[in-house]
Amino acid sequence: MSDVAAVAVLDTQGTVTGWSEGARLLTGHPADEVVGRPAAGLLAEDVPGDLLAARTGPVALRHRDGHRIELPLTACPLTGTDGQPAGYVVTATAAGATLAAQAFQQASMSMSVFDLRQRYLRVNEAACHVMGVPEEALLGRYFPDTVENAEHSRGFLTQLRQVAETGRPVRYESFTDAPAQNREHAWSIEMWPLRDGSGEPTAVALAAFDSSEQYWARRRLALLNEAATRIGTTLDVVGTAEEVVELLVPQYADFASVDLLDWVLGADEPPMIPEGGVELRRVAHGSTRSGNPGAALHIGEIDVYQPASPPARALREGHAVLSQAGEPEFVQWLEERNARSPRGRPFRQGAHSMIAVPLQARGTVLGVAVCVRMAHPDDYGPDDAVFAEELASRAAVCIDNARRFTRERTTALALQHSLLPRDLPAQAAVEVAHRYLPCGSLAGVGGDWFDVIPLSGGRVGLVVGDVVGHGIQSSATMGRLRTAVRTLADVDLPPDELLTHLDDLVTHLAADSSGDEVAELGATCLYAVYDPVSRHLCAAAAGHPAPALLLPGEPAEFVPMTAGPPLGVGGLPFEATERELPEGSVVAFYTDGLIEDRDRDLDGAAEELRRALTAPAASLDDLADDVLKAVLPDQPGDDVALLLVRTRALGADRVATWDVPPDPAQVAVFRQAATERLTAWGLAETAFVTELVVSELVTNAIRYGEPPIRLRLIRDRALICEVSDASSTSPHLRRAHAYDEGGRGLLLVAQLTQRWGSRQTLAGKTIWAEQPLPDD
Fold first, then answer.
1. H or E element in which residue 373 lies
2. What angle do CA 474, 476, 477 make, to 5 degrees?
3. Could you tell me where the DSSP H helices lie in 318-460?
4. CA 430, 436, 442: angle at the middle one, nearest 5?
5. Contact 103/122 with Cβ under 8 angstroms?
6. pTM of the full predicted structure?
7. For 577-612, what is each residue's pLDDT tens digit?
8. How far is Cα of residue 265 from the mean position of the Cα atoms in its chain?
9. Whether the Cβ atoms of residue 480 and residue 745 lie closer than 8 Å to each other
10. Which of 92, 261, 570, 770 could make an SS bond with 71 (beta carbons 3.0 to 4.6 A apart)?
């Protein structure tokens, strides 16, 4: 473009016959006010004679608004077809106009001028560079004819029209391609109207500033903010790695992968990073191509990255490593990928930039993330490296948290399973089915437990409990309480007394603990004893849900009982509830996770449990499965322990009872009675040992106990001999000296039987001894 600002044509008489737009802009006079009139009317003063002779020099003009302007004019004579003078072409170039034209033309931002019908009037050098064509190829052309039919082009055209129609400026941002640069750019665009002297719009000017750097900086910051909410939503190592890949593709990479050191997925301690090749396992990858056909590894596969490869370098050096097409290490890395997976070679075409960044948290290296660009035109740069390291740092913390949670959960589960009963001993008193489901919540494994404890006299202890909290601490506390219950049950304490001793134990444990561990020692427990001879169930609860009871031929119901305070509260009594059960009754003991949840109605869940227990089932195991399926939600929020017990009864044909008078002479009579009963049961071969046991226990009761005295034989899975009296004094083994006349009775019983012991009763005590049956 020329720097000429104005052109006027004069005839030989000095009358204006032509007037350019530039002349209008300089003087403010439109053409219809000037053409046909003497040019002298535009002068602010007479033109000196020497200037007229030279036909060039400064001339003072009067602007339309009245102010004086001085312009350097040049007059060029015109010659007609007959060779005679026809007039002059007068041109004027203002210094200000020249500077403005230079500023427009040389501006670093893209600038253009359009007429009101969106046709190019002027284009500066920066705009020509962006469009990839010279100005002459654009002038006079309609804007849509010079660009692709894309959404951003249509939006640009809409804004141009809006400014032309409304006369109001517009400012907006656009993310578009630069046709000549084969890359995406962010533009900050401002459009404004150009007006004539009357204020009417005559054209639309625009300036577009390339804000790509600022745009990508905002995008990277937005990605980091997004990472805070999208990464680490689950405490699962592989799931967290998948979240990282989903965040990176396609916003930051055309392909991304996360490879972890093998120990991260297990329970081993981290080894040192080797100096040679690094062995990594692929846990997640993603691509802009469906099915990820360009991946050289399948999920779960292991690859050894050579020392010079970007991933191995990133792990060893501890920072992001950039590599571009043409660089030796990039070429080598790509060749290794192609050699490992030749089928993916076509899908790796166009790969031009990669970045490998280590995943390290708390000073420990976990693995590496790799990002590759193919369709994305921009190479990774230093700013991308800073972003990648920040993102990888956040991702690594989430992965490490998931690893630590998995490890602790695995440890807690292993501890809990080691503490829970694996194979419950077969009981003649009851048939048992049990289920334990650890929750899948982020809180971790809880401290639920259950147990079935054989007691003397063919009875059985049934226990279910729940320790407050989750994790290893709760599992360890559960183990201590389960051991305590077994110990207390072994001395045959009734349920309410057992819970009182257990409450004292929890209180002492809490007093000996410090800090947050005190809260973990709270627990609930239900302990029950079932006697198959009397068919009585005696139960007491410490803050635990009451059991459900299904009597033969009747709908299930909940056992009405008074639940004492949770263990560890102290100072309040526990009350026992006793109930006689017909044979074949089903009792359901459970922890609160079965029916309690923040999103569930407690009464509704309890009713579901009652209906599920009432529904017919082929077996007790099937009933347990049906209960869990009917009552539990898809994702339980707490651990669940379920213990189903079907009662049996020992009839009169398996129990023999005699009242014993306190006369030593009667010992032989009851010894003979016991032998006769054993013969009737087909157990004559056990008679010798049984006679000795009966003789010793009855003699001790007569000599040291108080009437009434009772002898009972029970044929269960073992042969049980019991002698009861009204004295509460328990016997104990002692060493008899050489010349002692007594003191060897209980020692003899202990040597001849499988086990023996004593228990307190409401009326006194019972001494018992068990012998294995001959077919055992």
1. strand 364-373
2. 65
3. 328-340, 382-419
4. 160
5. no
6. 0.58
7. 999 999 999 999 999 888 887 777 888 889 999 999
8. 16
9. no
10. 92
